[in-house]
Amino acid sequence: MKPISRRTVLKGAGVALSLPALQAMSPLAAHPSIKLAETGQGAPLRLAFVYVPNGIYMPDWLPERIGREYALAPSLEPLAGLREEFLLLSGLAHDKARANGDGPGDHARAAAAFLTAAQPFKSEGDRIHAGLSVDQLAARAIGGRTRLRSLELGCEAGRQSGQCDSGYACAYSNNISWMSASTPTAKETRPELVFDRLFATDQQGRTAEQIHDRLLSRRSILDLVRADARDLERRLGAEDRRRLDEYLQSTRELERRILSSLAPRAPLATERSARPRAGSPERPEEIEEYPDRVRAMYDLLALAFQTDSTRIATLMLANEGSGRTYPWIDVREGHHAASHHQNDPEKIDMLRRIDRFHTRELARFLKILRDTEEGSGRLLDHCMIVYGSGLADGNRHTHHDLPILLAGRGAGTLEPGAHLRFPRETPAANLFLALLDRLGISLPRFGDSTGRLSGLGPSKGELDGSDG
Fold first, then answer.
1. Beta strands 404-407 and 383-388: pairing type?
2. pLDDT one-digit tens code per residue, 242-298
3. Which of 176, 93, 328, 326 lies closest to 337, judged by CA?
4. CA 316 from chain center: how many Å?
5. Helix, strand, coil shares of the chain as percentages rounded to 5?
6. Is the pTM for the entire model greater than 0.85?
7. CATH code of domain 46-189+312-463
8. What is the pLDDT confidence band of residue 34, given thresholds at 50, 70 and 90?
């Protein structure tokens, strides 16, 4: 039996549905006497960064003990069933997010430096300058192996022009991915457009509104590829047919949820348009829009990794300095205002609820990756997911001891399940170098790095005694 190509897609009118990893895609599929379970190590390695704005209430985040026997702090309790799937990293810092002589603007610098480890130039827009971000550096090196070099996602629209924070351009606050020092990689905040980007074959020249209308009017993507799917099923074994059926059904469910949010109840918004916040008096009917969007973006990211559409991604849960309210968890004050709590118990309680909401959604995402089979393992085994913020204490605008969580096993190069504490002021860029090593990208330094973060697991650099 000839193996099926990993690049096989199911085609229909204007769509191409990429496939998850199947046993029949292995070169060993032609030799039934060889156990296919032995081929799982060949799965590709993925890297994603998830950004949380305004810092985190650190007393409810940071465990007291280090090592494997630490107790989960309250904001991490939603991750209790996944504690063997992630590392907690404390002691990391972003010095380039500090003023360093440039005055106020910690929120803008926090986002701009998060993946660049570079000091953003204080400008309102005409001379923005940060640095190449680590995700885009990785995309340059390995992005050509997938249909999409990288995927930049967000859950809150925002301006790319004008100033948003104390003389800093909005581009700094609203992006974490930078394709060059002067060019942020604009994120997509509309799930339907991300879905279309993953599966449509006729995107050239179409506006966002045309894509929106087409998605509303067309048949389900599963209907469009049904003939190809049936033909493929005839060539698969029972286990692959089960995996394919589960994948198709989960894709259809995601499509239903995205389409259900496209009712023509309000005009479409673009990144640049002013739009009332979800849950505000102007839009009371969309109180659940933001959590739905967060879940959709996480689901789309999982789908992109599962189908090997991309191996590099970023997701901003909201823009830095976001004043978003969270009425579904009874937080009706803006996140940014609540983060400046000044030890007010009521505001601290709001922050706790916001932080737990975010970690609940992270837990849901990680469970999807953990429960998705890939080769002899799971999708999460072949991922490195960095979750965190460029601010620690939002009340005091601190950029040391950042809240950073690293999930996944990095194809066997990470050993999750512990809290690792590094010396105070260890550059977060040291973590980036360690992750790049695992992707096969070796650099002498990145940003303000001083070495490679050690202790994460048996990377090549650690095994051969390189600088930690």
1. antiparallel
2. 999 999 999 999 998 888 877 553 443 333 333 344 444 344 334 468 999 999 999
3. 326
4. 7
5. 40, 15, 45
6. yes
7. 3.40.720
8. very low
Top pLDDT among 265 and 214 is at 214
**pLDDT, tens only, 306-329:** 999 999 999 999 999 999 999 999
Amino acid letter for position 409 = R
Cα→Cα distances 344→122, 156, 395, Å: 32, 27, 11
Q: Is the pLDDT of residue 204 over 70?
A: no
The predicted structure's pLDDT at residue 467: 42
Residue 38 contacts residue 247 (beta carbons within 8 Å): no
d(CA 51, CA 53): 7
Mean pLDDT over 102-118 rounds to 97
Cβ pair 431, 404 in contact under 8 A: yes
The CA distance from 327 to 281, in Å, is 11
Q: List every span in the chain annotated with CATH 3.40.720.
A: 46-189+312-463
CB-based contact 90:419 (threshold 8 Å)? yes
Angle at 176 between CA 192 and CA 367, to 5 degrees: 60
Tell me how far apart the terminal alpha carbons of the chain are, to the nearest angstrom. Answer: 47
Q: What is the mean pLDDT of residues 53-58?
A: 98
CB 161 within 8 A of CB 153: no
H/E element, 369: helix 345-371
Residue 221's pLDDT band (cuts 50, 70, 90):
confident
In this predicted structure, the answer to whether residue 437 has a pLDDT above a threshold of 60 is yes
Query: What pLDDT sits at residue 3?
Result: 72
Q: DSSP string covering 83-105, please?
A: GGGEEEEEEEE-GGGS-TTS-S-
Q: What is the Cα–Cα distance from 48 to 135, expressed in whole angstroms?
A: 8
Residue 70 vs residues 284, 356, 453: alpha-carbon distances, Å: 42, 19, 21
Q: Which residues contact 320 (CB under 8 A, 6 or more apart)?
A: 51, 53, 54, 107, 108, 110, 111, 165, 172, 173, 174, 390, 391
Contact by Cβ (8 Å): 305, 311: yes
Closest CA to 258 of 341, 188, 334, 159: 188
Query: Structure tokens of 348?
Result: 């601290």
